[in-house]
Amino acid sequence: MNWYRIIKLASDYENYKHLVQQKSLKNPYPFSSWFDEDGRTYLPFTPASAQQEQSTQVDTSVERELAENGYQITDYRGGYCQSGNRTLRIGKVLQQLRKNKIQEAQRKFQAGELYNLERELESIRNYYNTLTNTFTNSPIRAQSQKQQQEFLVLISQNPHDVASMSTGRDWTSCMELGEGSHHEDIFCEIERGGLVAYLINKNDINVEQPLARIHIRRFDDREGKSFAVPEKSIYGNATKGFPETVKQWLDERQGDVKSGIYERQGGKYSDTFSDTMLVAPQKPENIIDWWRGKARDAEYSTWIVVDNLYEEYSREGGGIRFDYGGDQYDAPERIQDGTKIFKNKEKAEKYFQEKRMEDWKYGETNREELDSIMEYEQDPADDEIQGIWSKRHQSGQWDELRYYLQEKKHDNRPAMKREAVSMMLQAEKGTYPIEIINEVKNYILGPNGQNRGLNRMFFDKYPELLTDEDVSKLKDSDNIDFIKKLPDEDPRKASFIASWKKSIEEILANVDILNNTEMQQWLGQINISSDIAGLYDRYKMHLELAVHDYLLTPLQELFKPIPEIILQQLVNLPSKLIEKYFSSIPDSYKEKFTQKVNTNIVHTFYMTGSDTPT
Questions:
Q1: Is 25 helix (H, G, I), strand (E, B) or coil?
Q2: pTM for the complete prediction?
Q3: What confidence category does residue 330 fall into, taking pLDDT thresholds of 50, 70 and 90?
Q4: CB 190 within 8 A of CB 159
Q5: Which conformational region is residue 432 in: left (phi greater than 0), alpha (psi within -120 to 50 degrees), or beta?
C-alpha cells in the first residue's frame, strides 16, 4: 500500500473541506430518511467467497498479472505462487514486477523510445499500488470465518464521504479532486447528486482505508421524485457480494420505482448511465400505452426562466477567485443565478415578471459587477461603469435583457416506443393481442425501427408472422439471421436457401453484378486522382468486401457443405475478378488481391466443412 500517497492526498483534502461544506448546503438530500444524523448507515457484510472453497478463490486482477508473467497461484490465502519449481510470496513477486516495469520504462526513455517518463512511472506505480492493495486487503484471504465476517458496507450521503470517493484513497478515478479528468463533477455531485458505498474493515468506521467503493447516482422524475441507482463500476477490491449488498439495500428502501423518464442529477460524467433513464412499466396495458405514445412522460413541456447575465458572468469567470488544492473552483458568488425551471407555464410567467421588475429596480449593482469583470472602463465624468450591461434606454429599461422565458419541449415517444417493443418481445406469446404484435412487426421492419437486436428478438419469437415479401425486403444480414432461426422442418427455410443459392450462382457466373455505382465511382477517381496508391488500396479493399458480403458470408452461414457446382466456381473467382476489374491496376495489387480472396475462400471451405475441389 502506498502510504505516502494516501497521507499526501488525505492532507490535500483538508484544502477542500470548507468548499465541500458550502456546496452541500444546496443539496435537497431526498434520501435523508435512510440515514442517521451523520448521513451514514452501516451494514454487516460477509463476502460471498466465504461460503465457497477458499483454495479456488482468487482476485482475478492479481491472478491475471501473475499469469502474464509466468507465475501460478498455489495458495492465495497463504500468499504463495509458483514459477517452475520455485515457490514465492505473491507480495514480493508484485514488488519485483513493479521494479522491473520501472527499470524497463527508464531504459526505453534513455533509448528515446518513451516520450514522457514521469507520466509512465506514475501509471506503473498506480497500477501496482492498486494490485498490491487488492491482494493485501482481500477478504478472500481472511484466515478464518470469523475474520471474513469482520467487514462492513458503509452507505453514505455525507458530503465529505462523497467528495473523497477517489481522493485520499488507494485507487484513482476521474473524480479525484484536483487531478481527475472530471474532478469538477464532484462538486456538482455534492450540490445535487447521490450517495457513495464503501466496503470497509469493521474497525475502520471513519473510512480511512476503504477496500472498495461504488458511486450511487441520483435520478429525478419531472415531479422531482428521486431514486438511487448504483454505477456498475467498482473501484478498489471488487469483492463478490459487495454490489449485490448495495443493490439489495437500495431496493428494500425504494420498492417498485414508478415507471417514466428520469434525469440523472449531479456530475455530468458517468461510467454507466446516459443523461436519462427509462423505467419501464410492468403491466401489459401500461406497456401498450408506452407503445401508443400515451404515457405520462411521452410528451410535455417545461418552461425555463434563463438568467442571461449570470450565464455571461460564469463565462467570464466571475466566480473563479480562490485556489483549492492547486486547482480553481467557484468561490462564493457575487451574482446569484436566477435561472429556474417550471412545470407550469403560468408560474414561470409570474416568476419571469417578478425577476424582470427586480432587475429593473435593483439590478444596477450586479450589472456593474459584470461590466467590471468584462473590464469596461469608468466614465470620468460621472465615475460610472460604461459597459453593455449598465446601459439603459431613455425609457429606463436596460439595453441588455437579463431574463428571458423559453419553452422546452420534451418528446420521449421514440425512446419509450423502443422500450415497449423490447418488453413485448420478452413477454410470453399470447400476452399481447396479435394486432399489436403485427404493428410491432411493421415498426421493426420499417425505417424507424432498424435495430438488429429487436429484429433478432422478433425473428426468435414470431418467425411465422413474416411473409415472403417481408423477408425479401430485409437487409442481407437480417435475411440470413431470419433464415437461420427457422426450424428445419419449415418448408420456407429450404425455399429461402434455394433463393440464396440462385443469387450466388448468378454472381459467380456474371461478376458484372458486383460492378455497382460505388465500384464505378472508385474507378472514376483512380483516373483523375493524384493519390493513385491510396485509391488502389481502397478500390482493392472495396472489392474484397463485396466478395465477402455477397458471396462468402451467405455461404458460411447457410451452406454446410457448399454445393459442388459453387465450389468450382469459387476456385475460378479470383482470376475472373482480376480480368474484369484490374485491367488497369498494377500487378502488385493484383497479387495482393488474389492472395487475400483465395485465403478467404479457403477459410470458407473450412468453416462449412467443404472439400477443396481438385
A1: coil
A2: 0.65
A3: very low
A4: yes
A5: beta
